[in-house]
Amino acid sequence: MFSKLVFSTLLFFSAVGFAQNIKTSNTVLMRGEPVRTYSKLPALNKPAPKFTLTDVNMNDQTLDSYKGRYVILNIFPSVDTGVCSASVHHFNEEAGNLPNTVVLCISKDLPFAQKRFCGAEGIKNVVMLSDFRSDFGWNYGVEMIDSSMKGLLSRAVVVIDPSGKVIYEEQVPDISQEPNYEAAIAAVKS
After folding, report:
1. How far, in Å, CA of 178 to CA of 80, rounded?
2. Quick one: which of 161, 155, 97, 95 has its CA closest to 125?
3. How many CA atoms lie less than 13 Å away from 48 in the CB half-sphere?
4. pLDDT tens digit sequence for 72-121
5. Contact 111, 143 (CB under 8 A)
6. N or C: which end of the chain has fewer CB within 10 A?
7. Catalytically active residues, by annotation
8. β-pairing verdict for 156-160 and 166-171
9. Count of CB atoms within 10 A of residue 159's CB?
């Protein structure tokens, strides 16, 4: 009898703990159609979740690699689409004018495709990083979990200050639209 009570109590507290760790999905649009993402973006004024992503030379890059600088995360589905390409170009132009700031362009594209894109397009002021073998999309809540885009990242921008705290976030409501570049840049300059 006592063992059943202990087992039931442990089971109850395990279920409560599991329920508290479940994230709530978020909904964005793709040309007006709803698409769910794993969760919501990291909260403002909280430490940014750590990550390890792969650069165009197949090296691991972590958030700690950029400690002490402002970090703009330009997150998108694929560099091979018009809107994603436009966001990389826009941030590439802006990045050269932002002191103590790095722009990380993050997608599920393979590093080889990212490197090809940067070479062909003359992209030199941003860092391309791939989430093809990490849990970044889950940790940042941006991985799409349904629709034909399942497994890709939604369009979002997160700005992290030099201490590692999130100071700006935008989950673009419709992934077929560009982010609010001015607001992200203003977060760095404020």
Report:
1. 15
2. 95
3. 26
4. 999 999 999 888 989 999 999 988 789 999 999 999 999 999 999 999 99
5. no
6. N
7. 84
8. antiparallel
9. 25
